[in-house]
Amino acid sequence: METAKLTIRLPKADIEFAKRYARAHQISLTELVNRQLSRLRGHDSEIHPEVESISGLVPLHIDAEEEYHEYLLAKH
Length: 76
Description:
Number of helices: 4
Strand content: under 5%
Radius of gyration: 20 Å
């Protein structure tokens, strides 16, 4: 994807809020703005990066529902 630099003017309080929010969620301001714009475009069905980072950790042959059921039975 081609990118370009953008300068915008916002109230200082909004900028500080955005910085705190991004820091708390360990993302950049660019990523924060990009995610919000993506939602506005209707692409909020995209996989969240944190979910994507853990996808594929469980082998396909594992039946997660059955494993969870067995775990609950053993727990109680």
